[in-house]
Amino acid sequence: MVAPERIHEPGPGAPRQGRYVLYWMQQAQRAFDNAALDHAVVRANALRIPVVVVFGLTADYPEANLRHYAFLLEGLAETAGDLKERGIAFVPLLRQPPEAALSLAGEAALLVCDRGYLRHQRRWREQVAVEAPCPVTEVETEAVVPVETASDKAETAARTLRPKIRRLREQFLAARESVEPLVTDRPSGMEGDFRVEQAADVLDRLPLDRSVPPVSDLRGGYGEARRHLGQFIRDHLRGYADRSSDPVAEATSHLSPYLHFGQIGPIEVARAIQGAEADEGDREAYLEQFIVRRELTFNHAWFNADYDRYAGLPAWARETLRHHAADPRDPCYGPEQLEQAQTGDPYWNAAMTDMRTRGFMPNYMRMYWGKKVLEWMADPETAFATLLALNNKYFLDGRDPSSYANVAWCFGLHDRGWPERPVFGKVRYMNARGLRRKFAIDTYVRRVLDKADSEGA
Description:
Elements: E1 7-11, E2 20-24, H1 35-47, E3 51-56, H2 66-85, E4 89-93, H3 97-105, E5 108-114, H4 119-131, E6 136-139, H5 147-150, H6 158-173, H7 199-205, H8 222-235, H9 240-243, H10 256-260, H11 266-274, H12 280-303, H13 315-323, H14 335-339, H15 346-358, H16 363-376, H17 380-394, H18 401-409, H19 432-438, H20 441-454
Parallel strand pairs: 2-3, 2-5, 3-4, 5-6
Antiparallel strand pairs: 1-6
């Protein structure tokens, strides 16, 4: 059974007469470890009717481009196959997501949806809750500990959320039985607008921003996510606590794109880490990043109305940056120079090239990359907007609560004040000397440039 804390009823009421239970799949694009789908199956089994899954694909998803759509469709194709094997109908529609859900709600006994944390995602679900002719239930799938269960306010730092998460973590990681549908007949008239298996044709039909190509060596899908998880546990979990920051070692799971698109569930990942053969310190170091730090970003998006705006930064950070806004910048770069990796810093240029080529950047380099943009641009507001635009354009895991919080961290979010200095004020500073002192950073630069050269980037 699904934990009751995950279940929210914005459009309450008992199920009515209907042909099926409708699951509007949007955030959790997977057939397994999906609490919303499980809840839909449980409710459908009780009513002795089938489950229908609908997905709305729109060509104008905020800031998405060809890179993002290609990865998404690769994952949806696998999900469609997995749902078919479970006897669950999948109906992909070329419509705005809430319109897709509402178009099939007329004959539904109940509509179940997953939860999204961003402004437009919440607005979509609010629209469906108001306009659907049937009861609506929202199920939180992407956090280990549901956001409002963990905290009822915006947390100031990981240190304030950590004890709340730790008190609840094992409760929500407890094993639960998988539920299979009792009725597997596909209702008549359930045809989609396109075939997700024909991703190339779908991409050709959509009027997308094609300025950013797909990543050549990273494919979407649940199977790929599981492969990366297994490879990480085998090759990198041992020693993770000591090596996770090293951009040369790149001892990371590479799961963030799959988590962003909901192609693998957080419960499955966390339980795999807990059961892995590794030192407890390494397992806990990963779970700190995966649960506490990641869900701190959900907290930020949920409780801070300005999560994606400069106004959403802590007051102390905005004040110290305002005080130093007129400080000279030397060098000073514009957005085009930054996007083309045309700075005088070879480490920063390599990080930007990595981002453009792979849609990825090691975590420590993300921090350095962001801090230097703050240092080099004419004012902090412009730096914030530029950093976020580049982040969302090139990263496969961009446009995510983690993206917004990580960019804001470069400007003081979830951090404390440090000794005051020019440009940064009391916001944390990073420099190239630190990279050279801690890591064999030139090895990272060579690897990135060799990769870019091989792809003609």
